[in-house]
Amino acid sequence: MCDDELIPPSADLTEEQWLRADPALFDGPVGERVRAMRAPRRRAVLGGAVAGAAALTVLSGAGRTPAAAAARSGRFPLPTAPNRNGEYAVLLTGDAGTGEEAQHAVAAAAREVCRAEGVGLAVGLGDNIYENGPESADDSEFRTKFEEPNTGLDMPWLMVLGNHDCSGLIPGSGGDPSRGDREVAYAKGSRRWHMPSRYYDVALPAAGEGGPLVEFFAIDTNPVSSYVAQLDPHYRWNGPYMREQRAWLDGALKASRARWKVVLGHHPYLNNGKHGSAGSYDGFTIGDYTSGVHLKELYEEVVCGRADLILSGHDHTLQMLEPTSRTGGTRQIVCGAAGKAGDGRAHYGHPASWQNFADHGFMVLKASDRAMTVDAYTVDVPTRTARLAHSVRTSSPLGAAASTAAPGASSASAGRR
Ligand SMILES: [Fe+2]
């Protein structure tokens, strides 16, 4: 069970206001950390926009020939063709980065499934480094909370930024998006960690002629769903970063010729777990940040009806929600139980094909020219074993979806920003 997310007393406080409003927080370990880091932290905030812009500029245009680049760097290459089953099989994990036994157990269980299913690509849906995100681009936590647990899962991992990766003064606040640049920088030297920029897309080619079979659009949801108000103008909800990201996502989805389109974003659009859905996260319905109202707008105005799937974490649960008219036929899946587990119960009632609020687990997405299937696995941590709990299958893009209970040169146009 996990109930460790710090929730502010009011919407859209600055972190300083939150600390003043919650003396117990300031007197405890969080306050100790704040006092220890306060001076360097101020410099980090002031440098955020410049650092972010520089990183994005340097990375612009990277990855035009990803297979060649991977060969030069020793990185695990993106798959260039469907596997022996005629499909791309992709491991889905979220909220993994604790470095604790549960993360190791889920990864160990996933290794067995990945071997059997011919998995050649993985996804990390954010909160990659608990609790505060990395302190630098070569923080040892990249080793203890990512590389070591995932040993043997030797494939590229499409990583997205979560609120813990963008912590400011308070763990998980999302109040310092510039911290995410450390994860972009780390990707340059990692064989697994694929994050050519803070948001990016990766398209995997079909076996024959024609456009890509499946395309992933990794987005940064943090500036519009942080627990606190953004202080850096670059990352404000209506600032240049979010305007540019929205324009990029809109254009990329419009331009995509992929049969299957999958959006990867840490914070969910719809969610039956305790954090709730975009626009009313954690019970907040006012303001520009804590409620996620502007992420709701982004999902509804740009993603719904265009992407087949939204894959998210943040809630430490496993949910396969049903596509509806509200979502324009897009299916929301929550897969955030690779390191922590939920509180055991549903908090909301969005239509679901299957959902689990108590177990650790992961999922496997399989995309072929005939169908896209997502298999959900729960993991028994003590024995490090996985159990196939449910499958959903979509046979036509944004079309009718069937749900069944279970028995017992790739083109990565990354670095557009
Ligand atoms: Fe999160």
From TrEMBL:
The keyword Metal-binding appears for this protein: no
**Compositional bias (Low complexity):** 394-417
Keywords recorded for this protein, A-Z: Hydrolase, Signal
Q: Name one Pfam family in it.
A: Metallophos
Q: Which residues form the Calcineurin-like phosphoesterase domain?
A: 90-317
Native organism is Streptomyces alfalfae
Q: What is this protein called?
A: Calcineurin
Region named Disordered:
390-417
Give the PANTHER family listed for this entry: TARTRATE-RESISTANT ACID PHOSPHATASE TYPE 5
